[in-house]
Amino acid sequence: MNPFSNTYNSDASDRELFKRIKEGDKNSLNTLISRHQPFIYNIAWKMTGDSVTAEDLSQEALLKIISNLGSFKHKSSFRTWAYRIVRNHFLNDTKKPSPLFSTKFEELGDRLDAIENIQLSIEDQMAKAEEIREVRLQCLSGMLLCLTKEQRIIYIIGEVFGADHNIGSEIMDISKANYRMKLSKSRKDLQNFMLNKCGLVNKANPCRCHKKVTIAIETKMINAKNLLFNKKKFSTFKEALEEDANTLVNKSDQIYVELHRDNSFKTDFDKKNFIAMLLESKDWRARLHLN
Q1: How far is 104 from 232, CA to CA, in rounded Å?
Q2: Collapsing DSSP states into helix, strand and coil, what is residue 98?
Q3: What local confidence, expressed as pLDDT, does residue 88 receive?
């Protein structure tokens, strides 16, 4: 279940798992972390635009959560406590975003304009459908990197995951009014760029994903044999969220959110992940008093 939804009702089970962890149950720790890992990883992925960096970043954040379990005093929901740790770690991290992308909207726009437009026939578009979608998903991820770190995480939590201003303000540790203001600014900055550049939003714009795919493949901006975003084993944010998730947008804004929610959401992780390795470590088993 999406932990950013206002219908999230798993805090009782989070607390029960926490109680069992304190009693030394290693399986409860694995269950608790596995529940939140996909959401933390996918925030990291959208924050950095790079799957490898996201893996490191999310593991570091989860390690901080595990290390600080003893300091959780039940003064807030486990969700709020845990995701504040994630927020602080992501905002303070010094890892560089993927070099594929820009950090300013103007620079991103110039890069897109510099890529030669090559028209494809309908047949060619159908044949290259996966690569074209890869270009679109990569471009959408690049747009997020043009926001500041704080704007990025607020937009991901508030728009992509659909957190309302109560949940969003708690996690960001700011007032509801300030959260709404910052979310509105993030939304406007992103929408202004898309309205003036993206052909998916405004048909008057010349930029089209299928016109960029030929050069993107030739210059290795995308690897047609190993797509980063468009893999069959990935779902999308839309599929990962329950139907009643609150989007905080009106109908005129829906297309922007839908495009970003169509981005890849990784749900599968290696069985032998770092949590399993931690549980096998004598040092960490002793620290956490695990049976």
Answers
A1: 31
A2: coil
A3: 96
